[in-house]
Amino acid sequence: MMRIPVSALIGLFLTGAFFFVAIFAQWVAPYGMSEIVPGADAWMPPSREFWLGTDTLGRDLFSRMVYGAQITIFVATAATCVSFLTGSVLGFSAAVIGGRYDQILSRLVDLFMSIPSLIMALVVLSVLPATLPILILVIGLLDSTRVFRLARAVAVDITVMDYVEAARLRGEGTRWIIFREILPNALSPLVAELGLRFIFAVLFISTLSFLGLGVQPPMADWGGIVKENKEGLVYGVSASLVPAVAIAILAISVNLVADWVLNRTTSLKGGRGA
Amino acid sequence: MHPVVRLVGQRLGIGLLLLLAVSVLIFVGTELLPGDVAQAILGQSATQVSLANLREQMGLNDPAYVRYFRWLFGVLHGDLGTALTNGANIRSEIADRLANTLFLAFWAAIIAVPLAISLGLIAVRFRNRWPDKLISGVTLATISLPEFVAGYILMFLLTVKFRVFSPISTIFPGMSLGDKLYAIALPVAVLVLVVLAHMMRMTRAAILNVMQSAYIETAELKGLRPFTIIARHAFPNAVAPVVNVVMLNLAYLVVGVVVVEVVFVYPGMGQYLVDHVAKRDIPVVQACGLIFAAVYIGLNILADVISILANPRLRHPK
Q: Could you tell me if A125 lies within 8 Å of chain B, comparing CB atoms?
């Protein structure tokens, strides 16, 4: 039986709770996402009827937070999948094929990493419509550069192993070598990276939505809910702090889990991307 | 030629090449839209005449590479073009805002760098005891906070709960330096918080790495005070990685500044960029993107150059 440290347990529990709420949002939320409850005023304080009070238009903040969790976590999860699929497939193939293919891909990734992702995302979003699939693709592809670096670094170490050489001499193709020889051996450092990339995606989509360039109304993710309610803050209404704190708690709890996984696989990891 | 000069020259050359490639990337990034840019800007209800006018104004009738070189030529001559939304000259619009942004980033850096390095030194001096654990725990928490969350929490505490500062950090020409500093205190605090954690943790790691060397043991056996060992023997040998971390975090300030400016309604480049992304004002976005990228790349190159100069092993490459 392996021992799980308390911090990782707390992280696992909170992360699980967030995912549970996100998946079963329809059953958890007492009101609809953009339902204006009759008789409700804007920025009501928390009460038995409205657990977290109401927002700037008199909608139940708790329900919006629940649906916001769904959108935030969905976008972040999908973006993480995109970044891992692209990053690891390209990274592994660069390491296996090598030569000019590797050179071109690596220099291209260097180029993308030489400017901040947020700036690049802003440039791209100035012409593309901010729909969910586009946001997921933009975040996922910009983030896949870091997965590429990790996957390539790990795979370069593995490709020189004897068993890969043996597979090559057996006459196996590139696809076999990538999926049957390298992938199983590179899995643990990649899994450890998964948590970090997920947090990054959460922070990214929240920041974009906060700037008004991410998820568009009437849908809202947590960043968007902060934006909607920020005017209330100067009057002492803490509605915009609720999603802000939720983002921070989600980030910290995933971090706790990722830290634990990372420590367990330290000897296996090929390098940790920022 | 001296190897250091050659190495530094190489870095600068790479930096210029990189900047050129980034300008292509930014240009291509604004060409991604399938279909017509003019249509996307004006919307579905635009008339044929206004579409044709806008295409003419933006030079959309020429092929992309012609437009790229025209744009690059203009940028190299200090002409950033005119904004689509109000027809203003982008260069004169940006000048003041860039100065404001640099003012903000400068004060954040002035406070964050010494603070991070001294906290790192303290953490190493008391490693695995309570000051180290306290610093590590707090920084782990702040590292997970996005800028706007930190911003609003600070704003709530310091402007609403305790009325120390004003929630809107507007500065304008003619304010005295003291007034300006008072106005930007909150955004500076947020930026410091955001970069401090990372900088401090890396400083701690870099010094701890050096602490395992044999000469540190010698210094200990000579009976030097622990803090003297760290400050006089360990720190100078950790300067290269520390400088690198400092520079990378200053480059990170470039991103942080965009969000923090929006939070505090500060009249800087970041706010300008975000406003014009929403308005789909492509020339402004291109110009701002290029300037942010240039600053970012410049700081990264500077980090490389300083670590070359600070490291004797790099000064005499085999």
A: yes
Cα atoms in the 13 Å half-sphere on the side-chain side of B150? 26
Hey, of A123, A215, A255, A262, which one would you mutate to test binding to chain B, going by the most B CBs within 10 A of its CB? A123
Residue with tokens 């706007």: B148
Strand positions, DSSP E, chain B = none
Look up tokens 């839209």; give the residue: B33
Q: What's the domain count of chain B?
A: 1
Residue A146 lies in a domain: yes
Q: CA dist B271 to B100, B236, B261, B275, Å?
A: 11, 39, 6, 6
A245 touches chain B (CB under 8 A): yes
What CATH number is attached to the domain comprising B143? 1.10.3720.10
Could you tell me the two tokens for B314?
């790099």
Chain B environment of A247 (Cβ under 8 Å): 146, 149
The phi and psi torsions of A59 (rounded to 5 degrees) equal: -95, 155
Helix, strand counts (H, E) of chain B: 15, 0
Give, for B235, the enclosing helix (H) or strand (E): none
Distance from CA of B140 to the nearest CA of A (A): 8
Q: Which of A213, A200, A209, A214 is nearest to A229 (CA)?
A: A209
| A80 pLDDT more than 90 | yes
Count of the separate structural domains present in chain A: 1
The residue to which tokens 């100065």 are assigned = B99
Residue B270, CA distances (Å) to A143, A181, A235, A260, B89 in order:
22, 47, 26, 36, 18
Looking at the DSSP bridge assignments, the partners of residue A36 are A59
pLDDT of residue A201: 92
| Confidence band for A274, pLDDT divided at 50, 70 and 90 | very low
Which residues in chain B touch residue A207, judged by CB atoms under 8 angstroms apart? 146-148, 259
- Domain span at A62: 6-25+54-273
Q: Cβ of A130 under 8 Å from any chain B Cβ?
A: no
CA distance A203 to chain B (A): 6
Supply A104's token pair: 């071109």
Question: pTM of the entire structure?
Answer: 0.84
Q: How far apart are CA B123 and CA B136, in angstroms?
A: 8
Which chain A positions have a beta carbon within 8 Å of B289's beta carbon? Answer: 115, 119-120, 122-123
Q: Do B308 and B11 meet the contact criterion of CB atoms below 8 Å apart?
A: yes
pLDDT of residue A273: 36
Buried b (16+ CB within 10 A) or exposed e, A48-63: eebebbbbbebbbbbb
Structural domain includes residue B77: no
